[in-house]
Amino acid sequence: MSGFSYNNSPPRPSPPNLIDPFDDQQTVEIQQNTTNQPVPLQSLQAAVTPPSFRPTYIQPGNQNRRSLTYTQLNPYYNDSIEDEDEDQEAFYSDSTGLMRQNSNMSEVNLPLTSNAALNTSPSPSMGAGEMRTFISNTTKPETEGGGGSDNNDDGRIIYVNDSSPCIQQIKDVSPTNPYTTLGTLVVVLTATAFKEIVEDYKRHRSDAEVNQRSCKALQGNSFVAKEWNEVKVGDIVRVENGEFFPADLILLSSSEPEGLCYIETSNLDGETNLKIKQASGETSNLISPSEISRLGGYLKSEKPNNSLYTYDGLLVMDGINGQKQVPLDPTQLLLRGAQLRNTPWIYGIVVFTGHETKLMRNASATPIKRTSVEKMVNIQIIFLFCILLTMSLACSIGFFVRALKFDKEMPYLKPFGVNDNLFSQFGFNILTFLILFNNLIPISLIVTMEVVKFQQASLINSDLDMYYEKTDTPALCRTSSLVEELGQIEYIFSDKTGTLTCNEMEFRQCSIAGIAYADVVEESKRARVIDGVEVGSHDFKKLKSNLRNHSTANVINEFLTLLAVCHTVIPEKNINDIIYQASSPDEGALVKGASILDYKFTTRRPKSVTIVVNGQEQEYEILNICEFNSTRKRMSTVVRDPDGKIKLYCKGADTVILERLSENNPFTELTLQHLEEYATEGLRTLCISMREISEEEYRIWAGVYEKASTTLTNRQEELDKAAEMIEKNLFLLGATAIEDKLQDGVPETIHTLQQAGIKIWVLTGDRQETAINIGLSCKLIQEEMTLIVINEESHWETKELLEKKIQAMKGRVNPEAEPLALIIDGRTLEFALEKDLEKTFLELATLCKAVVCCRVSPLQKALVVKLVKRHLKAILLAIGDGANDVSMIQAAHVGVGISGLEGMQAARSADVAISQFRYLKKLLLVHGAWSYQRLSKLILYSFYKNITLYMTQFWYTFQNGFSGQVIYESWTITYYNVLFTVLPPVVMGVFDQFVSARMLDRYPQLYMLGQKSEFFNVKTFWGWTINAFYHSLILYYMSIVIFNQDLVLASGELAGHWVWGTTLYTAVLATVLGKAALITDLWTKYTYIAIPGSFIFWLVFVVLYGSIAPKLKISEEYEGIVGVIFTSPVFYATIILIPIVCLLRDYAWKYVKHMYMSRSYHTVQEIQKFNIPDYRPRMEQFQKAIRKVRAVQRLRKSRGFAFSQNESGQEAQLIRVYDTTLAKPKG
């Protein structure tokens, strides 16, 4: 038969394999000199359109009236394979030019940079005034958080037809015009490329902001400005107060005495308390550019690694008497990501840069993220493609059988040529039908989804409810491809510091001598006498008044003196004020509180502290310190006051202070009542006590203490025993209440998210007591929960305890009535994440309603997220604000960064950036739920409309002898997705709302619909597909019945094939637009433009195009048909009757679902429609009262709330010998 090509089809190129480099099974050890290979974007190609056909008029008696013409089609083939959604260990490479003698060496020589030329060779015999110079490495550009500029979209795959344009160009194979589909292909590629370019540009711009930060590096005898990406190993840099360190540095000297400096590491470990670093005594005297420029030698360092808390190195300095070796340890290491605080300046040597810094070693490479909806679409496309192949094969077999059986009866058709190869002919037939049916899988879906997701991201960005006016920061959706994932989150992994809290400690309330005071007192809580008993609180003005003329004045004086004297704070005097540098944020808040109450701490010397009380200086001699540790939970200071009396001031957790009180303390009961009130408000409580000590008692005890402090065996235990001897018979002065200030709306947000079925895990580098306290404050840990605390020292102890707890939990009668919270520290977590324990740990964690992981490293945060991601089929979200959260953010399906006041590392690496944790509620419950439902509807409708149209081509093959003849004109087929049905899915995807934002906020349980994939799943997809097959069947065969005898024109001629095809096309369009109207929940002006407007546009288009195009030798099939169809009653009857018949079943099914099979959102839609009031607030007030009662009961069972204090050690010793009276160099 003519119309076939006998040329052999060229061999098809093999599809490239997409290799997913993210593999959790690999070791966490980061390999050097390994780069991440780029993953190529997939070509998005679509089928091109067909040659035109003119109708052939056949005699009335011939039943086969329509023209039979043959063309060829190309299979809808995917040029990629779906990569597994695994995670990847980080890949890094050494910075360019860094001198590495041997990658396996335990030590690496890192040169110091000098003023000489960079290529000067080192000489073993250089004097003190000479400098050594080596080639040093340059910082590689990367994001602050290690995200790099990789675009998260770069590996997403949706299967598309990329071979149709090629095969359609083969002569006499395609049944459609070979040029029409090129337009669709160009639109798809252009739109996708534009979107990728825009988002990638934003990421590169963020990277540039970090890499182009300025710092000062030594050049000659002065410091000059350099960008971060120009800093080299061996450079000596100057960092000033408030600046971030541009690389990992070794501290040489500082403006502070003894080479001390203060740093904040919240970006690294989540702790806001300041840490003290001290330079070596050999370099701390280099305090001017001229002195530091004379430094010569080299640095021997350990290899780059991810341990934040360890470091071993050796600084070899050139001197007059030869080289001098200076050992280095973590005390001198200043890590990139940390910030210099309360220190005017420091000098440091660059030891690690770029990807070799410890911060970057804890980061993961930016993963390729694909949504669960996309994965589901890919799987269903594969099944649809199998159906497409089956249909093409069946049609080819049909043609083959028909040709063999009727070859002699219809010789004029010439189904086979003289030299035809039957198998080759059969193969070309398959290609023809593949091209004919290929749009069962909608190519336009790709660009439609990209446009809709981009618009959904724009709606998030422009939402004023998520705009933070204080910092002028709107929400920012950096990766629009993941918007629908926001509606399916099941687990949230959150950092604590800066994410849930504001990094601010404030002295709020105190109880002194049984009287409660507060900085701000609400009217309902003001002090008043009820039944002869005083209740409520006084303000701080009343406290100052009582200090002058009240019976408790002496107690108040001792209370405030203790706050001003017993601490490890260093005062930094400014022109008009004093800045308190505190390694413990609680201590800083207490000292500031005492200062507000006119007890100002002003001076620290090695053996004394000075405070100013009512304008008069008072010096207290520090005799001994009994340091805080996690076992003691208290801190004591033995002082000699200005009157010569020896006093012991002791502060600590209530559980340890109360048991050390003397008998008949007058204020114990009242103080306990106030403690309960403070704790139920989520405040951090601390008991304050004292006692006077006689000279004789102190002399005896001091001897015991001195002996304990000098013993070589079990020194800490001996010191603790010595402290026990004197910390007794204490007098309770009162208690303090400090607020670790939560961000606004955090408790309410967490409660609402839990109602939505989302489980929240807090992963923090902070201490266990602090984390538990914040968990209680933010309502993550509720009063009725039982805490499971796991702090073990070995693998086997951890395994035994985990298994024991799981067995105990499985035996519970009513798990819902006994909610649990799991608390685990970083050391134990290290064991729990090992291969043989990870599933046991995960099982226990999933049985708990809340999980808090304390003292965890950035890498452990990422490993916890990956553990859940690997073993649970759940969508995960990670949220944080610092560089230490970047790995966790990138490991989760969706990463959310908090745009904090300090640093944007997490926000730059995240998929979505918001400025407050409370905005997460609207981001997920409203935007997430809308996006998921809209995308689900868009995808289902896109498949439906294409299947409905193109399946009519399949039914037609049974009547045209399986010849490959098309029903519709070629360009009109192309315009179906490009013009006539493009607006309904876009408008539904952008503006549709199945319920309003107000209802989604009021009923957070609706969010579970997304978690359960109610709107898009296998059942729903194939339900829509079957419905599309049903509609196509009705459309085709009803039109065949109507046009059974064709239309006879006034001239006596038959209207012909193209009148029937155009009429059927119009009926199909009316049906699919009617279906769009039926599933639309919210009608806006855009909906009217999209649905009725599209149909009107088609009618106008066919008139104009059908009149003009044939004259231009385009679409000549339309010649003469416009007047025929628009003057025929049959045309109007067809386009009205058939859509009604098709959609009648859909309308009936919608009625049945709403009335008899209703889901939760159907009920809420009715509540919204009729504006039914909600009486639940009364119930919430009742539940709030119940929770308060439970909180008090819980506190009475086990009191003891956290007070954040550093362990005793080198930092405390450094502070004791600090002298603030010494002048500071300017550097």
TrEMBL record:
It catalyses: a 1,2-diacyl-sn-glycero-3-phosphoethanolamine(out) + ATP + H2O = a 1,2-diacyl-sn-glycero-3-phosphoethanolamine(in) + ADP + phosphate + H(+); ATP + H2O + phospholipidSide 1 = ADP + phosphate + phospholipidSide 2; a 1,2-diacyl-sn-glycero-3-phospho-L-serine(out) + ATP + H2O = a 1,2-diacyl-sn-glycero-3-phospho-L-serine(in) + ADP + phosphate + H(+). The chain crosses the membrane at residues 379-402, 422-447, 978-1000, 1021-1043, 1055-1074, 1086-1108, 1120-1144. Its EC number is 7.6.2.1. Keywords: ATP-binding, Golgi apparatus, Magnesium, Membrane, Metal-binding, Nucleotide-binding, Translocase, Transmembrane, Transmembrane helix. It comes from Rhizophagus clarus. It is a multi-pass membrane protein. Its main location: Golgi. GO terms for biological process: endocytic recycling; phospholipid translocation; post-Golgi vesicle-mediated transport. Its cofactor is Mg(2+). Mg(2+) binds at D495, T497, D881, D885. Residues 907-1157 form the P-type ATPase C-terminal domain. The active site is at D495 (4-aspartylphosphate intermediate). One of its GO terms (molecular function) is ATP hydrolysis activity. Residues 1-21 are annotated as: Disordered. It is an enzyme of class 7 (translocase). ATP binds at D495, K496, T497, E587, F628, K651, R684, T764, G765, D766, R855, K861, N884, D885. It is found in: Golgi apparatus, trans-Golgi network membrane; Membrane. This is Phospholipid-transporting ATPase. The keyword Membrane applies. Belongs to the cation transport ATPase (P-type) (TC 3.A.3) family. Type IV subfamily. One of its GO terms (cellular component) is plasma membrane. InterPro entries: ATPase_P-typ_cyto_dom_N, ATPase_P-typ_P_site, ATPase_P-typ_TM_dom_sf, ATPase_P-typ_transduc_dom_A_sf, ATPase_P-type_domA, HAD-like_sf, HAD_sf, P-type_ATPase_IV. Residues 210-279 form the P-type ATPase A domain.
